[in-house]
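Protocol step 6 of 9: fold each sequence in the batch and record its structure tokens directly after the sequence line. For illustration, a two-sequence batch is reproduced in full.

Sequence one:
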Amino acid sequence: MIVRKLGKKVQLVTQNDHAELSAQMAANWGSGKFGALEPYNEMVLATLLHDYGWHMWDSTPEIDQRTRQPINFNELDYRRHTGFYAEGVARVSDLNTYAGLIDVMHAIGLYTQRYGLYPNMPNPGAQLPVQEFLTKHRGMREEMIRKLKTARKLSRYAEEDFVWHNYKCLQIFDVLSLYLCWIMTPTMKVSPVPTTPGSEDAELTIKKVGAERVKISPYPFRVDPLRVVVPARTLRSFTFEGNEEFRAKFYEAERKSLDFELMA
């Protein structure tokens, strides 16, 4: 659950709705020096399902019993957090091996500052649940790469240049969606932004120009403006007596679309 305080109110977006917003951007990626996604279907699927393991939390969210406020996605204990991602990548891998590869790398990256590419992220590597998760899923990554290299259709996309390019693409879609659902500072710079496999990365500058309007430079989408939507619930309070009250208010609240316009 992505929790954003708005004065005395709180806006809530589920992890899987956030992922669907990411997928809308993935489906339209590719303009100028930013190459279109390859393999397209697998990458859009990976983006759509990169937070799949959160589905149970999305349906039964909780509050922090100390603060009585909804627990944000970045506040959950690592035992449960790694459990969500372990379930998610297992399910995605069963559906599609390449999507599973990119999603298992995304999960590993969440505990390694996105493989060191985002040094401002927390680094929970000393946590035992994280160590156990990383040991298992690094091995899973290597197994999937070996499997994909024997698949004629997808073997070229299992080469290191393509794998890392596509991993970094998913991170950009994730970060852009988090910006729209949660961060929404006046300006933000995002890097590294992949251009084409094996080529130099770029940096995006994001500027908020309205409540739901954002300028991005250089512009990476093939549609200008790109309109994307995500459902959200807004509650009139951000403190609750317990989980039952919070969930009742959560389900009573109307789901309303946030309609964003991304432009050059």
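Sequence two, same batch, same settings:
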Amino acid sequence: MIPIRDHNPSGKTPWVTYFLIAANCIVFLYMVLLPEDSLEQFIYSYAVIPRQLLQGQKVLSLLSAMFLHGSFGHIIGNMLFLNIFGDNLEDVLGHFKFILFYLLCGLGAWALQLLITPASEIPMLGASGAIAGVMGGYLVLFPNNKIDILFTLGWYISRVSLPAYTMLFYWFFAQLLYGVGGLGFADVGGVAYFAHIGGFAAGWVLISLLGRKKGRNQRGDLFFPGL
């Protein structure tokens, strides 16, 4: 299930969303051009390493790690999701509140992952947690907006339009399933699913503090009136 666009045009140019996409791409290009030994040193310098961070080391990695990606697939997927869901939240929140929201979601993502894997020495990197927060906020404000989805099954590809909550709930519960299923294998590397869960939950909560009322007044389509 791959989202390709939403049917919810933004009311103004999402400059912060574009800046975040550009910044992530520039950093990734820089990483691609580094020699292998320098790349490894760069990652260990700027990625989140739970054990070191909880010992008070490299605190700023909580921010720098949000702009690092480990592969082309990693950054393409993240930037696709940010491009689809980011502009509408930036429209509701405004530029300053949106970047604050984005960074706080990223911190919330790291917080849950650190709680789950405090002794890990594996570098954690990527914008996925912050973008998961954007998705959580989108779910609160725009649950019924249509999202164009690509379904793939082998050679079969189909494009359908679904309400946003369908795709977002599916994504969240997939992260939860994979995260819980991998609890016994926390130090084997791979995807930090609990960072996704933490970011999504942070976005869900923060949108109530930063933009829920404005989003309701502008769009009138809240799916969870009692949230």
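Proceed to step 7 once all outputs are recorded. Observation for sequence two: The beta strands are 2-6, 146-153, 156-163.
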